[in-house]
Design brief:
By secondary structure, the chain is an alpha+beta fold. It has helices at 8-18, 50-62; strands at 33-41, 47-48, 66-75, 81-90, 96-107, 113-122. The longest helix is centred in the middle third of the chain and has 13 residues, at 50-62. This is Nuclear transport factor 2 family protein.
């Protein structure tokens, strides 16, 4: 069963799970991110602005294999959203893969993500 709630981050993760099989869904990132948002995923360079974020995800998922996220979201006292996640999948060459990590998101008054960070570690599978 997929975990979903009503936060923008939960809806974003659910959309990202569809990106490998449905790359056109990445055009919907504007309903999750502010126009000037910043995304800093793991060791990648920060990406700023909706067009650059969309292109980053398009490149990232064009070479990804199957995957599925499972997560829990908490609203922190300072208003940020914290997501503890696990993603499991299969690479394009058939190898199993799994990662666990934490994302933090800052959301503006319009309910859009303005800053998203993620750190994860590979799990032995």
């Amino acid at each position: 069963m997929t975990h979903t709630t009503e936060t923008v981050v939960d809806r974003y993760i659910a959309l990202i799970d569809r990106a490998v099989d449905e790359p056109a869904v990445l055009e919907e990132l504007g309903s999750f991110f502010a126009a000037d948002a910043i995304v800093q995923l793991e060791d990648f360079e920060p990406v700023t602005g909706l067009p650059a974020i969309t292109e980053f995800y398009r490149r990232f998922y064009s070479n990804a294999g199957e995957g599925k996220h499972f997560w829990n979201t908490t609203v922190l006292d300072d208003g940020r959203l914290e997501v503890r996640f696990l993603v499991a999948g299969r690479t394009p060459d058939g190898q199993l893969t799994a990662r666990s990590g934490i994302e933090h998101a800052t959301v503006n008054t319009d309910g859009l993500i303005t800053y998203l960070t993620a750190k994860a570690v590979a799990l032995d599978v």
